[in-house]
Amino acid sequence: MIPADVLFVFIAASTALALAPGPDNIFVLTQAALGGRFAGLMVTLGLVTGVLVHTVLVALGVAVIFQTSQAAFTLLKLAGAGYLLWLAWKSLRAGAADLQDGSPAQLPAGRLYARGVIMNLTNPKVAIFFLAFLPQFADPGRGPVTAQIFVFGAVFGLCALVIFGAVAWTAGFLGGWLRSSPRAQIVLNRVAGAVFAGLALRLLMAER
After folding, report:
1. Residues 6 or more apart from 161 whose CB is under 8 A from it?
2. Which of the two residues, 189 and 116, has the higher pLDDT score?
């Protein structure tokens, strides 16, 4: 059983990491601002699912591949950057009418969810981070390490769900203003495109 003090420290660290500006919460912010709270919340669920998948990879030792193989790391990095650049291109091409007819808010829940999953899973830095972060709190003296990693991963996912959900809910209030201001819609699309391009560049420059 994981001691309460260890769990408390882990929750505090996980909350701080989720609050720190990064690709995931910026992604939630832009999607919620463009598509409303529903879009942001569905993307959040996708991101949290990615967190749980990374937890499984760490528990099974698969994440070591991305830490030790330059080819695997580069391949996944290029896939993630390519996806972000595709989102940037779509946002930069979008006009005011697109927010009414084909914006993230108009996309099916499954596609919004998939955006979050892909965004998280195609970032090899997340896998390596989890490989370094989660085992620090596991102790073989408390039982199977794999089971403890699953618990810590689930707790981290819950912290991310709360924080990212709050970001999505708050940013979603921009939706009403955007619908009444075509110019604001266009500007925010351009900003979102620039953000996605910036995240892609950041990912391309990432090293193991």
Report:
1. 44, 45, 48
2. 116
For the chain, how long is the longest CA-to-CA vector? 60
Percent of the chain exceeding pLDDT 70 equals 80
Cα angle 75, 83, 152 (rounded to 5 degrees) comes to 75
| Structure token pair of residue 86 | 């595709």
Average pLDDT, the chain: 80
1-10, 83-92, 113-122, 145-154: which range is least confident on average? Answer: 83-92
Measured distance CA(86)–CA(192) in Å, rounded: 12
